[in-house]
């Protein structure tokens, strides 16, 4: 609140809130939040199966009024005119049973539907053609162009000079130089850019780097942030493309910049996970502990991506699309590849033996296979360091970050 007090009673989507009892659980709220990886997975399946997609929103106009009565959301949705009545019924039934899960799978007859919730925003896709949506027959395109324009406008950089790349490969961000004059603006812009990475994996590393300095931003950090904005200005139309594909192989790439942080010598790990040709998940993150060798740093990165692929395999199984083949994890460090299948435990690896056993147990089980990949084809490089412009653009295209499809003019 404006006076500094905390407002605890906020309106949220309540699953069958009318069953709550005063004095027991009437103050409980339910804010389902689906993971971005889940959304992209479901959209990838929808694109491959040519299922229609519908975006919905809960009507909450009453939240802007002054009410003294207790309000329950008995009829939470206002989209009956645009969605087939059968799915309105299915969706209502699903919402009322979602006290624990932000996603749902439900079936009526031979039709299957997937429901994703993010507080009061809803994505619904179903095998029935009764739900109408306009999109390309062979692919889907995810874009946040309007949001990117708003960020540029807030930074007063809507007419800035564009940049071909998002980061200066010649410099490393430190903690020297003067503090920025407006730290609040820096923090606001850096936080906003984090949400833009939902459809722009190409800026993940650069955004991660500027976010590391949100507590104490200096002028070089603000210059790096402005470089990202100039790059966004030159690629406003870009987004993430999902293709219709019959391939159901899960493939991951993992890479680590060993001791890349000059001030702390922490390593930065990055990975990307594909289902067929579609990018489902990615990460650019500083490791929480120091690594005493490149093999240790790389293996920690492999363990992180293996954990993510295990989660995705479980998600696909729950979505009734189980994978029959092992997940392929590509790493460019030979030692890390050997550690994933070598049964001998060496003294030098005891300090990371939890990660060692985690991955090694999955290899003989046939769920994961760690393989070597040459640096030339290590797509995860884009998540751990700045790259030369030609290589950056090549890897960006490999991640399916590009202009929206234009049937007459061709793709970017």
TrEMBL record:
Q: Which InterPro entries match?
A: DNA/RNA_pol_sf (IPR043502), RVT_2 (IPR013103)
- Check the record and name the Pfam families matching this protein: RVT_2
Report the residue ranges that make up the Reverse transcriptase Ty1/copia-type domain in this protein: 7-110
Family annotation (SUPFAM superfamilies):
DNA/RNA polymerases
Q: What is this protein called?
A: Ribonuclease H-like domain-containing protein
What is the source species? Tanacetum coccineum
């Amino acid at each position: 609140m404006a006076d500094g007090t905390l407002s605890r009673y906020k309106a949220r989507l309540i699953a069958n809130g009318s069953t709550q009892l005063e004095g027991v659980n009437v103050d409980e709220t339910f804010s389902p939040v689906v993971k971005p990886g889940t959304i992209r997975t479901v959209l990838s399946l929808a694109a491959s199966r040519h299922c229609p997609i519908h975006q919905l929103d809960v009507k909450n106009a009453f939240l802007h009024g002054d009410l003294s009565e207790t309000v329950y959301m008995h009829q939470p949705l206002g989209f009956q005119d645009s969605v087939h009545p059968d799915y309105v019924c299915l969706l209502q039934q699903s919402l009322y049973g979602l006290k624990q899960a932000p996603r749902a799978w439900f079936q009526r007859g031979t039709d299957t539907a997937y429901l994703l919730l993010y507080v009061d925003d809803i994505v619904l896709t179903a095998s029935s053609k009764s739900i109408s949506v306009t999109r390309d027959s062979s692919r889907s395109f995810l874009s946040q162009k309007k949001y990117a324009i708003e960020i540029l406008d807030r930074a007063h950089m809507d007419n800035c000079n564009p940049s071909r790349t998002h980061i200066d490969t010649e410099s490393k961000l430190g903690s020297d130089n003067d503090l920025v004059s407006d730290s609040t603006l820096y923090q606001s812009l850096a936080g906003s850019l984090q949400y833009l990475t939902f459809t722009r994996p190409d800026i993940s590393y650069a955004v991660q780097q500027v976010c590391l300095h949100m507590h104490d931003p200096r002028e070089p950090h603000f210059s790096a942030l402005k470089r990202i904005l100039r790059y966004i200005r030159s690629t406003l139309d870009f987004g993430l493309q999902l293709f219709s594909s019959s391939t159901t192989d899960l493939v991951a790439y993992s890479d680590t910049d060993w001791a890349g942080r000059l001030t702390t010598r922490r390593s930065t790990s990055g990975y990307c996970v594909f289902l067929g040709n579609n990018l489902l998940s990615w990460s650019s993150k500083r490791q929480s502990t120091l690594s005493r060798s490149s093999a240790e740093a790389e293996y920690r990165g492999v363990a992180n991506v293996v954990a993510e692929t295990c989660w995705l395999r479980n998600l696909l199984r729950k979505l009734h699309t189980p994978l029959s083949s092992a997940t392929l994890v590509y790493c460019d460090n030979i030692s890390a590849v050997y550690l994933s299948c070598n049964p001998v435990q060496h003294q030098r690896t005891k300090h990371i033996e939890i990660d060692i056993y985690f991955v090694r147990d999955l290899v003989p089980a046939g769920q994961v296979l760690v393989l070597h990949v040459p640096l030339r084809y290590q797509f995860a490089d884009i998540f751990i360091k700045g790259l030369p412009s030609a290589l950056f653009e090549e890897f960006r295209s490999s991640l399916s970050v590009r202009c929206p499809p234009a049937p007459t003019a061709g793709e970017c």
